């Protein structure tokens, strides 16, 4: 995919479809730990409690993604950006639909000749 290519309406529809089909949000970054996953950095449908959760005290069904599973090394980013990647994934659940909606809103403004719905030009404060 060429990142510099303009998004078509079909592209936006496809992005919106994928987002709508994903597990509902919001998503949260959680730090979990047990004898098998050791320092698991995960994206979850429930917030982190502030305490490092240990299995079986957390429900594996709440986990959407993991960015670090240390033992054995199942999931591990070479650049060690586990926390940053988890935050990105968690935020994407809400940010991607918002970005699609914003692109569509801006396109509607452009199609309306750059005028806001109340009649004022875009860019007015």
Written overview of the protein:
The longest helix is centred in the C-terminal third of the chain and has 30 residues, at 82-111. The radius of gyration is 20 Å and the shape is elongated. It has helices at residues 9-21, 82-111, and strands at residues 28-33, 40-44, 53-54, 63-69, 75-76. Helices cover 34% and strands 18% of the residues. The mean pLDDT is 86. The protein is built from two helices and five strands.
What topology emerges from the helices and strands here?
Elements: H1 9-21, E1 28-33, E2 40-44, E3 53-54, E4 63-69, E5 75-76, H2 82-111
Parallel strand pairs: 1-3
Antiparallel strand pairs: 1-2, 2-4, 4-5
Helix pairs in contact: 1-2
Distance between the termini: 37 Å
Summed up, the helix count is 2
The residue ranges in which pLDDT falls below 50 over 5 or more consecutive positions are: none
Report the count of strand segments. Answer: 5
The helix fraction, in percent, is: 25-40%
**Major sheet summary line:** 5 strands, mixed
H/E series: HEEEEEH
State mean pLDDT (0 to 100 scale). Answer: 86
Strand order of the largest sheet: 3-1-2-4-5
* Helix and strand composition category: alpha+beta
Radius of gyration: 20 Å
Tell the overall outline: elongated
Instruction: Please state roughly what percent of the residues sit in beta strands, choosing from under 5%, 5-15%, 15-25%, 25-35%, 35-45% or over 45%.
Output: 15-25%
Write a compact overview of the structure shown.
This protein has two helices and five strands. The protein is α+β, with helices and mostly antiparallel strands and 125 residues long. A five-stranded mixed beta sheet has the order 3-1-2-4-5.
């Amino acid at each position: 995919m060429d990142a510099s290519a303009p998004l078509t309406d079909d592209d936006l529809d496809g992005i919106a479809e994928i987002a709508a089909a994903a597990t509902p949000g919001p998503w949260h970054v959680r730090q979990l730990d047990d004898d098998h996953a050791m320092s698991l950095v995960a994206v979850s449908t429930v917030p982190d409690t502030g305490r490092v959760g240990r299995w079986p005290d957390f429900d594996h069904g709440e986990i959407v993604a993991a960015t670090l599973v240390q033992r054995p090394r199942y999931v591990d980013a070479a650049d060690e950006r586990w926390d940053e990647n988890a935050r990105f994934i968690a935020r994407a659940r809400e940010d991607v639909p918002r970005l699609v909606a914003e692109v569509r809103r801006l396109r509607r403004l452009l199609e309306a000749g750059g005028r806001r719905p109340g009649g004022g030009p875009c860019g007015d404060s």
